[in-house]
Amino acid sequence: MTTTPNHHLETIAVHAGVEPDPTTGAVMTPIYQTSTFAQDDVGVHKGYEYSRSDNPTRTALQKALAALEGGQYGLSYASGLAAIDNVLRLVQPGQHVLSGNDVYGGTYRLFQQVLAGYGIEFSFVDTSDVTAVAAAIQPNTQLVWLETPTNPMLRLTDIAAVAEMAHAHDAWLAVDNTFASPILQRPLTLGADLVIHSTTKYIGGHSDVVGGAVVLNDAALYERLKFLQNAIGAVPGPMDCFLTLRGIKTLALRMAQHCRNATQIARFLADHAAVAQVIYPGLESHPRYELAQRQMAGPGGMISFILHGGETAAYTVARQTQLFTLAESLGGVESLIELPAPMTHASVADSPLAVDPGLVRISVGIENAQDLIVDLGRALRDA
């Protein structure tokens, strides 16, 4: 079915990019498990020649991702970091990238330990402070990189304001929208040039497939990224694409439940004697609560919190939950708990981006909220 921008996101999630198979009428997109395609003549084919370059299952996924974000073009990758790497290859040696100072540890590792060695300059600021962003943009700034909400401190950045600043300096604005998903936030509509996802997380939603995506509107940037996607080859296989497409169909339903559950749990944590601070965009105590109300359709399923007992208490809680599985990643139907400092953000331990070792991050799943609260309450008794 061809969806339009006038359709609601729930409808787009179910139908975008998906057409009945012309050969069999199959409603679900077939898994085109093939590496190559027969050609009618030398250099004459039906749009597909080799699955690194293009695959029909991947085409369906890319169309769906573009429609969800309200973009013209979508590209899928083997992981979120592969997507980020492709975007950063738009930047040339000697150019500058301004990044938030609270980003996924793997992003910081890629920037500082890999790409900086090829002559790209990086600096890191608190992008929730737009005056700090304005002061940090340099004459050679080519790209401003945002996470909003950030990982793991859940800081929010005014996307429209930073987009205006970036464009005034002829720079691109890229937004990692993984924590919000297109259901809760659509950065392209706020002025971003590129939207990036780890589709492993909320978009896939079932903790069974790794992937990444880039969505954009600019035709020239798309052609360059499409070239890079093929030339570098970090593409998802057809089964990965199929699983991600399957996950997308329930994205709107899942995000609604993630938000409902996380809001209840955040309020429970805020009232608990063992908890010193709760960081959640859905609480009025969040420093950018007003921005969350204006920029996002919901506060999301991620919560970070700090205990009065510090690091020792954090380890205790992380080890004692039962429904919250101790594991890295996020955005699946099941609830997860982790300590960012020694886990997802270990790569920033000796940097200015180091995370409080007592910070606990939870990805709230779609289970019954009261069951999750009882599980956390039991773990917090010894914190």
Task: Write structural notes for this entry.
By secondary structure, the chain is of the alpha/beta class. It is 36% helix and 15% strand. The strands form 2 sheets. It has a 7-stranded mixed β-sheet with strand order 1-7-6-5-4-2-3, with helices on both faces. Strands 8-9-12-11-10 form a 5-stranded mixed β-sheet. α2 packs parallel to α9 and α12 (310-320) packs across α13. It is globular, with a radius of gyration of 21 Å. The relative contact order is 0.13.
Outline the fold blueprint.
Layout: H1 9-15, H2 56-69, E1 73-77, H3 80-88, E2 96-100, H4 105-114, E3 121-125, H5 130-136, E4 141-147, H6 159-168, E5 172-176, H7 181-184, E6 194-198, E7 212-216, H8 219-232, H9 238-248, H10 251-270, E8 275-279, H11 289-295, E9 302-307, H12 310-320, E10 325-326, E11 336-338, E12 359-363, H13 369-380
Parallel strand pairs: 2-3, 2-4, 4-5, 5-6, 10-11
Antiparallel strand pairs: 1-7, 6-7, 8-9, 9-12, 11-12
Shape annotation: globular
- Order of strands across the main sheet: 1-7-6-5-4-2-3
* Beta-strand residue percentage: 15-25%
What's the alpha carbon Rg, rounded to whole Å? 21 Å
- The helix count comes to 13
Give a count of the beta strands, DSSP E runs of length 2 or more: 12
Main sheet specs: 7 strands, mixed
CATH third-level topology of the largest domain: Aspartate Aminotransferase, domain 2
Please name the fourth-level CATH homologous superfamily of the largest domain.
Type I PLP-dependent aspartate aminotransferase-like (Major domain)
Mean pLDDT, nearest integer?
A: 96
SS-derived structural category = alpha/beta
Poorly predicted runs of 5 or more residues: none
- Portion of residues within helices: 25-40%
- According to CATH, what is the class of the largest domain? Alpha Beta
> What is the N-to-C order of secondary-structure elements (H for helix, E for strand)?
HHEHEHEHEHEHEEHHHEHEHEEEH
Q: CATH architecture of the largest domain, please?
A: 3-Layer(aba) Sandwich
Termini separation (Å)? 52 Å
